[in-house]
Amino acid sequence: MSIPESTAVEPRRAAPSAGAGAGVPDSGRGLDLTLLAVAVSGVSLSAPLIASTAAPALAIAFWRNAMAVGVLSPVALWRHRGELRRMGRRALGLSVLAGLVLALHFGLWLPSLNMTSVATSTALCTTTPIWTTLILRARGHHPPRLVWAGTALAVVGAVILTGIDLSTDTRALVGDSMALGAGLAAAVYMLLGAEVRRTATTTAYTFVCYATTAAALLCACLVSGSALAGYDGRTWLKIAALTVAAQLLGHSLLNRVVRGLGPSTTSTAILLETPGAALIAGLWLGQTPPAAAYPALAVILGGLALVILSDRRR
């Protein structure tokens, strides 16, 4: 689950605009990188679990957030209620906005999988670190050349694995646009989280964010007619496993480390989800990993190393 921090509000520390946090001790950065690896492993379980779960994709997205809120509620409303009260109007508003953007990410990407090829949808959605770097540049930050190079290299690694085959079919083009929008939404979500985490704790931020996402996805399910119940016990167990692995360990740890590592490093590391999911599917579902999985993993790791190296030089 979300790693609860001290009940006292964390010391105010400016979150870095790109790369890892300047001035963060090596021991703290080492812990963040370890938690980042755990988080990426958690989100890598997402696709194999969703693929094996007999429930509508939007309903799965709703339940993973709703269940996470259920788990976090006793912790956030009892042990950490003081942190919620001290969030401030701005942090609370940005947390709600982050939740809406996360719901938009799910709402755009999941339907796009049925409108265009899965490979193309995944490749376009993995443009998140490019959007992150561009948004930072537009806000007046100047990411070093190594950040640009590392970001581009990591995205190339994702494309090596997923491929991209843009179609001229109208429906497929709409799906492509939705997947691209999902990648942009993920970048905005990551940047909003980095901003909120300058003053708010992980528990307070994730509780408000996930509650907002769950509410928005519930509305989407009702509008689209996605069945929210009637599943068998095996399906509920898989949704619960998805909640623990991808939501509480995955997204919550990403929300924790983005404060120290910054949005550029964090969003670039998320690209490891693509080859990670392929390898997990091979081990768990018996699906043979594509031949490109291993070189793609190496290329993405190389790109991530450049982004982290850039921060260390700074």
From TrEMBL:
Keyword Cytoplasm: no
GO cellular component: membrane
Compositional bias of kind Low complexity: 14-24
The entry's keywords: Membrane, Transmembrane, Transmembrane helix
Region of interest (Disordered), residue spans: 1-24
Domain EamA: 33-162, 174-308
Spans traversing the lipid bilayer: 33-51, 57-79, 91-110, 116-134, 146-166, 172-192, 204-229, 291-309
Domain of life, per lineage: Bacteria
PANTHER family: ACYL-MALONYL CONDENSING ENZYME-RELATED (PTHR22911), EAMA DOMAIN-CONTAINING PROTEIN (PTHR22911:SF76)
Similarity field: Belongs to the EamA transporter family.
Descriptive protein name: Permease of the drug/metabolite transporter (DMT) superfamily
Biological source species: Actinacidiphila yanglinensis
Lineage of the organism: Bacteria, Bacillati, Actinomycetota, Actinomycetes, Kitasatosporales
